[in-house]
Amino acid sequence: MTTTDPSQSAVALRPFNESDFASFAELLAELWHSESSSELSLLQGSEELSHHLSEATWGIVAEQSKPIGLCLVKLTSDLMLPTAAEGDASFGGALNAEVWEKRHAAFVEQAQALDGASACPDPICAAEDVLMNRTLEDDGTSVGILQLLVLSPEARGLGLGRRLMQAGLSLIKAAGASRYRLSTDEGCDWQFYEHIGLTRIAEDTLILPDDDAARAFSYFVYEGTL
Q1: DSSP state of 157
Q2: pTM, full prediction
């Protein structure tokens, strides 16, 4: 895939492979679990990434000498990519849910052994899954899901997030969907999704423990059209 932006000229999109796991697990640990010890933080990042991989059906990596961005896409059972798209590396590659489910269970066990049952799995991630599944039960046919979109801090400001997102949406559209959904929360840049025209179709709150008192943490599901 080519681009006219010099800052992205060396960025290639390719399928996710197992050797990418460590880089992105470390990235999730740094972004979302930095309050934990380094060992626990890495286990939590590994747990969260393996969970998303077990839920997703396709993975697209942005690479510029090293992996710097990841987009995971989930296709509902009524969607199917045409053969031509499956052979295009820029569409990413298929993921083996069974493999990642086993690895996810192992990371949860390791994290809980290190720091107790509350260490894993991440309650926010689990709550967002419940909310997303609720919307799919109500109206989940021919809907693609952006399961995860994450960038290395060094890749921000280059427009790469939009490029990766568009690659995921192109895959969803090629599979036959006219709509897509994603989940996010107040700890992320949820305003970006409203800025680009997505509609919030569901929201809920989770009560999280704090040092002084419990606090409400909001999370959302957005939908866009293709």
Answers
A1: T
A2: 0.91
Q: Over the Cα atoms of the chain, what is R_g?
A: 17
DSSP 158-204: TTHHHHHHHHHHHHHHHTT-SEEEEEEETTS-HHHHHHTT-EEEEEE
pLDDT of 99 reads 96
Backbone angles phi, psi at 178, to 5 degrees: -110, -5
Token duo for residue 21:
């796991």
pLDDT tens digits along 75-104: 988 898 888 788 888 788 999 999 999 999
CA–CA separation, 141 vs 146, rounded Å? Answer: 15
Cα–Cα distance for residue pair 214/202, rounded to 1 Å: 23
Best CA proximity match to 51, nearest among 144, 132, 160? 132
| Residue type at position 93 | G
Distance CA 44, CA 152 (A): 17
Instruction: Give per-residue pLDDT as tens, 174-201.
Output: 999 999 999 999 988 899 899 999 999 9
Question: β-pairing, 143-151 with 67-75?
Answer: antiparallel
What percentage of the chain reaches a pLDDT higher than 90? 71
Secondary structure class of 12 (helix, strand, coil): strand
CB 90 within 8 A of CB 163: no
What is the residue type of 27? L
Output the six-digit token pair for 171. Answer: 């895959």
